[in-house]
Amino acid sequence: MFRINDHYLKLKAGYLFPEISRRVKQFAEANPDASLIRLGIGDVTEPLTPSVIKAMHDAVDGMATHDGFHGYGPEQGYSWLREVVARHDYQERGCQIDAEEIFISDGSKCDTGNILDILGAGNRIAVQDPVYPVYIDTNVMAGNTGKADDSGEYQGLIYLRADETNQFQPALPDEPVDVIYLCYPNNPTGTAADRTVLERWVQYARDNKALILFDAAYEAFITDPKLPRSIYEIPGARDVAIEFRSFSKTAGFTGTRCALTIVPRDLVGRDSGGDPVQVHKLWNRRQSTKFNGVSYITQRGAAATYTEQGRKEVRQRIGFYMENAAIIRKALGSMGWKVFGGIHAPYVWVRVPGGMDSWGFFDKLLNEAHVVGTPGSGFGRSGEGYFRLSAFNSRAKVEQAMERIAKKLG
Ligand code: MLT
After folding, report:
1. Among the three residues 254, 289, 308, which one is the final residue of a domain in this structure?
2. Which of 41, 138, 221, 250 to mutate to test the pocket of ligand 1 (most atoms within 8 A of CB)?
3. Distance in angstroms (rounded) separating the CA atoms of residues 26 and 372
4. N vs C: which end of the chain shows fewer Cβ within 10 Å?
């Protein structure tokens, strides 16, 4: 008889977003005439930009010819894409990252989970709380935790609390940890990190020989040019951090799928005998074995976001969503609600008014205003009493959602 991975049985009921979809579906079936506005999952709504579409069309046409046909590509990504990423996203900002340290993939969600393949058992793992649930669930699946307690937190994980008392910037762990997940700009709170915050983490990782898994999926939404966009803008980060980035939110690739993971060659871990091992080699081995690369057509589309015109178009898209975020902040703020985030991130983090809990407020918003958001408690214990609204939608729908909220809940 075959055995399953028992660790999956420790997982809490459902992944957050499918649970939201289930409740929304139930509501929609019971209220077929209600017109729902979705500000829940951070899924983009604006179409791919003209430069991306043109590059993808050209790539498709090429695939119809012997000369332009591409079969298996390099598992790490085509060098022409890795090179433009290295130049524009890193070297131009003073980061010493070269093309071979960049691994093109089909998503940051996948990579933040897959990275656990190359980490050993017994690491002490810290996560911010509230947190993007993938970091937790993938550690549960990998057997890196014990069972969940009554509050839903897993034994063996170290939760770094982020709340209003610390401006959603958790303190350094008060016990030694080996792996730290950081997400900046943060999902879900929308908080950005300045140099001082990142320097503190890099120093901690260096002092404790720890690894930082830095999720920078929302870096393109940073509006203050003084804020770092990459952990590698901090001296000393090359030997303590892996960074994840994505074209999903930046260039509208949530359905198209393209992302990147940076593994610097200086990053060295220890095997069980204490001997040093280059992490880059392991990740390359993992990707070459388990991954066949992102499609040629998609990578051509991603590369087009780095042309002068492509960059302009991407900036416009981001500007558009950030105007939505400003509208949400202003509308809820003027109702006297406490709002956070939404300045360097497409997420607005709202203190639930009237002392309701997060899921109670989710249901109220859905039932009374027909607006879908994300309950803060779905991101962890410190998210209880908060609610996340995403800025990804059309202008008309965002404005309509704010009008409805003001009318029904104001
Ligand atoms: C979110 O809403 O938090 C994101 O869409 C999740 C993701 O990117 O996987």
Report:
1. 308
2. 41
3. 13
4. N
Containing domain of residue 369, as a range? 6-46+310-409
Q: 330 and 355 share a domain?
A: yes
Cα–Cα distance, 170 to 4 (Å, whole number): 36
CA distance 77 to 103: 6
For the CA of 43, the nearest atom of ligand 1: 5
Joined tokens for residue 52: 């991306």
- Name the residue with the closest Cα to ligand 1, atom 5: 42
Q: Which is the closest atom of ligand 1 to the Cα of 249?
A: 8
Pocket of ligand 1 (CB under 6 A): 41-43, 109, 187
- Tell whether 1 is covered by a domain: no
Question: How far does the centroid of ligand 1 lie from the alpha carbon of residue 133, in Å?
Answer: 9
Nearest CA residue ID for atom 4, ligand 1: 42
Instruction: Please give the Cα distance from 191 to 116 (Å, whole number).
Output: 26
Q: What is the pLDDT along the chain (410 residues), one digit of tens a residue?
A: 999 999 999 998 666 888 888 999 999 999 999 999 999 999 999 999 999 999 999 999 999 999 999 999 999 999 999 999 999 999 999 999 999 999 999 999 999 999 999 999 999 999 999 999 999 999 999 999 999 998 889 999 999 999 999 999 999 999 999 999 999 999 999 999 999 999 999 999 999 999 999 999 999 999 999 999 999 999 999 999 999 999 999 999 999 999 999 999 999 999 999 999 999 999 999 999 999 999 999 999 999 999 999 999 999 999 999 999 999 999 999 999 999 999 999 999 999 999 899 999 999 999 999 999 999 999 999 999 999 999 999 999 999 999 999 999 98
User: Does one domain contain both 239 and 385?
Assistant: no
Residue 84 in tokens: 């433009």
The CATH code of the domain that includes 65 is: 3.40.640.10
Helix 395-409 and helix 308-334, axial crossing angle in degrees, nearest 10 = 10
Contact 198, 234 (CB under 8 A): yes
Ligand 1: atom nearest CA of 248 is: 8
